[in-house]
Amino acid sequence: MRRRNLSIAIVGAGFSGICLAIGLKKAGFADFVIFDRGNGPGGVWRDNTYPGAACDAPSHLYSFSFEPNPDWSRRFAEQPEILDYLRHCVTKYVLTPHLRLRTGDGETGEYGLLVAACGQLSNPAVPELPGMDAFTGTMFHSSRRSAPTHQRHSVGCRERRGAAPLRPAGCAGARTIRDGTSPHWW
């Protein structure tokens, strides 16, 4: 009789992937790998580093039930604090040996189970706005922006859910700041 491969491949090292990995370890299962295209755990909280990035729900909801964080510094935690919390969980539950980062090079493997934990906000949804092709200022999506712009006119685009509004601090010196938020789609 052929033995079944019970190893697990988890795609995504954000909240969902980390939560699943911790659950597997707590259940005594250690044969899993967490793949992520980024350079560390955290998912959207690693990637969204625009000025003022913060959760849009009370901070205590950004904690796992088995690892509460009573020490959030504010009601709506900012991106660095949420990312620190996720890194804390990875360290505490010894997940680093299971991480395979900067993936996407075509490496293949054989696993008994594949879990997609890449999240609904891992790829930005950029709306088609009239006049985009003629705009000569800075255009960005919040998930692909990190440094403040010093342009006179800026257009920022973000998903409605999971992102706090773009802050004017991220567009210092701009006379025109537009938030091209797309409508809800769920």
TrEMBL record:
Signal peptide: none
Region (Disordered): 166-186
InterPro entries: FAD-bind_Monooxygenase_sf (IPR051209), FAD/NAD-bd_sf (IPR036188)
Gene3D superfamilies: FAD/NAD(P)-binding domain
Name assigned to this protein: Flavoprotein involved in K+ transport-like protein
Biological source species: Thermomonospora curvata (strain ATCC 19995 / DSM 43183 / JCM 3096 / KCTC 9072 / NBRC 15933 / NCIMB 10081 / Henssen B9)
